[in-house]
Amino acid sequence: MKRGKWVALLSVVVSLSMFLAACSGSNQGGAPANSATGGQGSSQQEGKTTLRIAWWGSQYLHDTTQQAVKLYEEQNPGIKIEMEFADFNAYVDRLSTQAAGNNLPDVVNMGSFLSEYAERGLLHDLTEFVDSGVIDMSNVDPVVIANGTFSDQLAGISIGQNALSIFYDKELFEKANLSQPELGWTWDDYIEAARELKKQGLVEYGFTLATNRDLFDYYVRQRGYQWFNEQRNGLGFDDDQILIDYFQMLQSMVKEGIIPPPDVNLEYNATNNSMLVHGMAGMMVGAWSNTISDLNDSAQRPILMAPMPGPGEESGMYLKESQYWSIPKSSENKEEAAKFINFFNNSIEANAILAAGRGVPINSVVREEIRDKIDNSILLSFDYIELIASHSSPKNFNLPLTFQENVSIYTQIEEKVLFGAITPEEAAKEFRTRSEGVLSQ
């Protein structure tokens, strides 16, 4: 999209978003996006320093994060925190609007879009706070800093480690007399297990798909490639047979009834409302490990996790920051914001409350100290991360500024494939043409 068209489109989006925000306020109980005065991300209230802190997540994350925030205010009586939270899509839309209006909160959650905000010059370099000890990283693997660094600037600090996984219903596997999934299982092994669960009448679908873009990215990495090339102006693989094979696999599973069509899957796309929770599916493929506790709480029966399918799983797997904390350049209280980030990652008391809801804590001392303070279902993610750490490859950081648009293109095409509206060959051609058309600009 040319710059003129992009600016025009952005203006429309910003105007609409501001109108909607004014009408509805904050989503899911968080403070409204314009809750702080001015456009600087902080304010003074009753002699206290006010920090605006924003995050996305499930209701479970909202609840535990608010408890941790309350603890911080109790320990720091000079600080007043205004909270802004929502589900992911609403959060991303709001953040984009706030960035356009120079009204970002003091502390913001970042995800795969961290590099975009960093390259746009919107985020403060956190290196000074790490060097000064305001943010203590002494018990953190150096790779965590590397993972949040772009153009030699520390744009974000990880909140927790995460990895793709397959969740499965332990009781259903036992009823079907199936071996439990383990490292080394292939796509064929998983598909055959799903087929057997359905054949025995234990489930309506063998699989439910937790995520489309991450599952596709994993499939490409399995084959030794990346979604995008190093220059970020094209796809990272030349052979369209990769796409064709992947789309054929998904399409055949829909036709066989192993996975649901998109419209059915959409009805159960929340973790606590998934087909796995309702006993309609035996497995959830491509889920993030940090959601295991929420899933077990919702299902009220043992849900376990297993590594993603092979072959090539060690190339496909990687450890990922579930979320980052970042401080916008527009914040007037950067040091106070940094102190909050330090508390969030390094306080044992806070992390006992947070209970690894955003992934395994990055601080090794915190990890050990809270092991006996959290549920066994959460400990599953600790053990899983330890397993995957030695069976994974470095994460890919070359996400283009058009990443969200590329994800949208992929999602649209995958949906057409699953509905049988186009063939895998047609889908592969359309995907390359549209993706590289966006990337080349």
Structural account:
The strands form 4 sheets. Strands 1, 2, 3, 4, 7 and 14 form a 6-stranded mixed beta sheet that branches. This protein has a 4-stranded mixed beta sheet with strand order 10-11-9-12. α1 packs across α3 and α18 packs antiparallel against α19 (424-439). Residues 1-43 have low confidence and may be disordered. It is globular, with a radius of gyration of 22 Å. With 441 residues, it is α+β, with helices and mostly antiparallel strands. It has helices at 3-24, 59-75, 88-100, 114-119, 127-132, 142-147, 170-175, 187-199, 213-222, 241-256, 262-266, 292-299, 313-316, 334-346, 348-354, 364-369, 376-389, 403-418, 424-439; strands spanning 42-45, 48-56, 79-86, 107-110, 149-150, 153-154, 157-158, 161-162, 164-169, 205-209, 281-288, 303-306, 320-321, 324-326. The longest helix is centred in the N-terminal third of the chain and has 22 residues, at 3-24. Keywords: Signal.
Mean pLDDT across the residues is 88
User: Cα distance, first to last residue?
Assistant: 7 Å
Radius of gyration: 22 Å
Count helical runs.
19
The biggest beta sheet is recorded as: 6 strands, mixed
Q: Please report the total strand number as a whole number.
A: 14
Q: Considering DSSP H and I runs of 4 or more, what fraction of the residues is helical? A: 40-55%
Keywords: Signal
Protein name: ABC transporter substrate-binding protein
Organism: Cohnella hongkongensis
InterPro entries: Bact_solute-bd_prot1, SBP
